Amino acid sequence: RRARPVREVLFFPSRPCCIEALLAEAAEPGAPARPCPCPLPSVDTALSRLVRRLLSARRSLDLCLFAFSCPQLARAVQLLHRRGVHVRLVTDAQYMGLHGSQIGRLRHAGIQVRHDQHSGYMHHKFAIVDRRMLITGSLNWTTQAIQSNRENVLVVEDAEYVKAFQDEFERIWEEYNPASYSF
Amino acid sequence: RRARPVREVLFFPSRPCCIEALLAEAAEPGAPARPCPCPLPSVDTALSRLVRRLLSARRSLDLCLFAFSCPQLARAVQLLHRRGVHVRLVTDAQYMGLHGSQIGRLRHAGIQVRHDQHSGYMHHKFAIVDRRMLITGSLNWTTQAIQSNRENVLVVEDAEYVKAFQDEFERIWEEYNPASYSF
């Protein structure tokens, strides 16, 4: 039986938390949990809920992110990539090189990244899991935003909204094709 | 009969457009349209749709905006205030004084404004019309974002999502009560 569509609203700031158990379970389901030596609690927070939603990806993850510097979220994305999930990432050219950006690391891991060449910002902050679940809001994927800002994220499993954002993603993905870059 | 709930996705950049006809109709419904001398076309754009949704307010408009410098949107909000709509505005302390900010003008017009006292940003960008319609996304209310950035705005008439954001608004509104400011 099909589960009820996900409808969730996450508000930030989120208290800092350890997501090692979530990552370990996603990397090796059913493996015995090893305690993490870090001092952070493994508790249910807005961040842990966001990570859980991302880690639910089985086939594809399309990311359209103005700023991506949070190492915890980058680890989740890398894990999905290693697990065979098809990850595509669109980001902003002016922000991808800033201090702490995770874009280089993700590219190095083999993840496809495309960026704009405009003076305007690629200011979206959304993710689409398995072309089925939309994660969108005000939150840039930075530790500062997660831990310090007032932010919102909607998680929506609704074909109409997902399609609108998926279409926008595909438009941008094509427009930012490196074959079309001008120098 | 109750109309079907609004479900709309707006993508930006929006081409520049004239919203004088929309404002005039909202200020004086049914009055004969006077042509605007500005060179911009009065066409259907993401901006004009956003303005229409805002101008549909009859009783209340709750705004929770990181940055608000777009004069066109400020005029729409002022018009609602003059029309007797109860407008409340929460904004970010670090951004409200920046060049071009409309916050001073809105305060001067008699609109209640509250802001944070934190180092973290009040980074939300949402509006709630008549406690019934949620307008939220990546878009800061700046002309730069509207005309130059890739942005999204969801318009959602869905009691569950509206309640979550209305509760967040009320929490912030109380927390930012000037009676609690410390100096």
From TrEMBL, chains A, B:
PANTHER family: CARDIOLIPIN HYDROLASE (PTHR43856), MITOCHONDRIAL CARDIOLIPIN HYDROLASE (PTHR43856:SF1). SUPFAM superfamilies: Phospholipase D/nuclease (SSF56024). GO terms for biological process: cell differentiation; lipid catabolic process; meiotic cell cycle; piRNA processing; spermatogenesis. It catalyses: a cardiolipin + H2O = a 1,2-diacyl-sn-glycero-3-phospho-(1'-sn-glycerol) + a 1,2-diacyl-sn-glycero-3-phosphate + H(+). GO terms for cellular component: mitochondrial outer membrane. It comes from Vireo altiloquus (Black-whiskered vireo). One of its GO terms (molecular function) is phospholipase activity. InterPro entries: PLD-like_dom, PLD_domain, PLipase_D/transphosphatidylase. The gene is Pld6. It is a single-pass membrane protein. Pfam families: PLDc_2. Belongs to the phospholipase D family. MitoPLD/Zucchini subfamily. Keywords: Differentiation, Endonuclease, Hydrolase, Lipid degradation, Lipid metabolism, Meiosis, Membrane, Metal-binding, Mitochondrion, Mitochondrion outer membrane, Nuclease, Spermatogenesis, Transmembrane, Transmembrane helix. Residues 118-145 form the PLD phosphodiesterase domain. Its main location: mitochondrion. This is Mitochondrial cardiolipin hydrolase. The keyword Hydrolase applies. The keyword NADP does not apply.
